[in-house]
TrEMBL record:
SUPFAM superfamilies: Rhodanese/Cell cycle control phosphatase (SSF52821)
Disordered: annotated span: 52-82
Name recorded for this polypeptide: Sulfurtransferase
GO MF annotations, alphabetized: thiosulfate-cyanide sulfurtransferase activity
Domain Rhodanese residue range list: 14-147, 177-281
Source organism of this protein record: Halosimplex litoreum
Protein origin, superkingdom: Archaea
InterPro entries listed in its UniProt record: Rhodanese-like_dom, Rhodanese-like_dom_sf, Thiosulfate_sulfurtransferase, Thiosulphate_STrfase_CS
Record PROSITE patterns: RHODANESE_1, RHODANESE_3
C-alpha cells in the first residue's frame, strides 16, 4: 500500500513537514475550524470559471455533478488553466517542492480533485497525499483551530509533465472496443441507467468509502468490489463521471492500490454528450 492516501496519525506526526490544504468553503474553514497549519483553497477556486457554479460542487452534499454544463471543447474540461493554478498556489504560499496533504469534509472527493489538478500541472505525484477520512473524522481525535495560518506568498512553478493520464474523446471511443481496457463510470446507479458510455461498467465512487469512518473501506473489501466489476489491475482502467470530480477520488484510490495503467477522461460525460456520441441506457 502506498502513502498516497494517508491516515490522520500520519498527518498529525508531520504537521511541521507538510503543507495542508483545506478545500472547503471559506466560511467552514474560518467558522467551524480547520487542521492546524492548513491553508484554505476552496474547491471553486481551482475549477474553470465557466463551470464552477454550474457544477453544483459547493452546494450538493451527496456528491452529484451537474448534468447541464457545457463542454469546454479544448480538452481542458474543468481545469482552471496553468497560470490561474500557479497564481492560486502562490497565493497559498505553496511551492512545487512542497509535500501536500489535502482534505475536505465530503469523504475526500473534493480534496482528490485538488490533488489531481496539481498532478496534471506538474506537482510531483509522490508529494501529493489525500487525508484518509475528512475533517469530521479528523476532529474526533485530533486538534483543530480557528486561527489563521501565517505564510508568505511563494512563486509556484507549473511544469506540466510530458505524459499525463488524460485522454481525449476519440481515445475513449476507441477504448470501448479494446478488450484490454475497462471503461469505468463512477456515478450513481440512476445516472448510469439514464445513459452511459457504451460498454462501461459502473463503480459509484462512494462504494469505496466507509460512511462511518468517512475514509476508505478496508483494502480487501475494496479489492473485492473492484474484482466483482472486472476492474483488473492487469488492464488499463479508463475513468469518467460527469465533470471529472468523482473520478478524481477513484483515480486517487486506484493509484493508492498500485494500479499501474490509469486513464482520466477529463471531458467526461459532459463532453461526450455535447459531441453527440452514442449512449447506452439501462443497468
Amino acid at each position: 500500500m502506498s502513502e498516497i492516501v494517508v491516515p490522520a496519525e500520519w498527518v498529525a506526526d508531520r504537521l511541521d513537514e507538510v503543507r495542508i490544504v483545506d478545500v472547503r468553503d471559506a466560511w467552514e474553514f474560518d467558522g467551524i475550524g480547520h487542521v492546524p497549519g492548513a491553508v484554505n483553497v476552496p474547491f471553486d477556486s481551482f475549477r474553470a470559471d465557466d463551470h464552477a457554479a454550474e457544477d453544483g460542487a459547493t452546494t450538493d452534499p451527496d456528491g452529484r455533478d451537474a448534468d447541464d454544463t457545457e463542454a469546454s471543447g479544448d480538452g481542458q474540461g474543468m481545469l482552471p488553466g496553468a497560470d490561474a493554478f500557479a497564481d492560486l498556489m502562490s497565493e497559498a504560499g505553496i511551492t512545487a517542492d512542497d509535500r501536500i496533504v489535502a482534505y475536505d469534509d465530503t469523504h475526500g472527493v473534493f480534496a482528490a480533485r485538488f490533488l489531481v489538478t496539481a498532478e496534471l500541472y506538474g506537482h510531483h505525484p509522490g508529494r501529493l497525499h489525500l487525508l484518509d477520512g475528512d475533517f469530521s473524522a479528523w476532529r474526533l481525535d485530533h486538534e483543530t483551530t480557528s486561527e489563521g495560518t501565517d505564510f508568505e506568498r511563494s512563486t509556484y512553478e507549473v511544469d506540466p509533465p510530458a505524459e499525463t493520464p488524460l485522454v481525449g474523446i476519440d481515445a475513449v471511443a476507441a477504448a470501448t472496443d479494446d478488450p484490454d481496457t475497462v471503461v469505468v463510470d463512477t456515478r450513481e446507479a440512476w445516472e448510469f441507467e439514464e445513459g452511459h458510455i457504451p460498454g462501461a461498467v459502473r463503480l459509484d465512487w462512494r462504494e469505496l468509502v466507509d460512511d462511518e469512518t468517512r475514509g476508505l473501506k478496508p483494502r480487501d473489501e475494496i479489492e473485492s468490489t473492484l474484482d466483482d466489476r472486472g476492474i483488473d489491475p492487469d488492464k488499463r482502467v479508463l475513468l469518467y463521471c460527469n465533470t471529472a470530480r468523482r473520478i478524481s477520488h477513484t483515480y486517487t484510490v486506484l493509484r493508492h492500490l498500485g494500479y499501474p495503467d490509469l486513464a482520466f477522461y477529463e471531458g467526461s460525460l459532459t463532453e461526450w454528450k455535447a459531441a453527440g456520441r452514442d449512449l447506452e441506457t439501462g443497468a
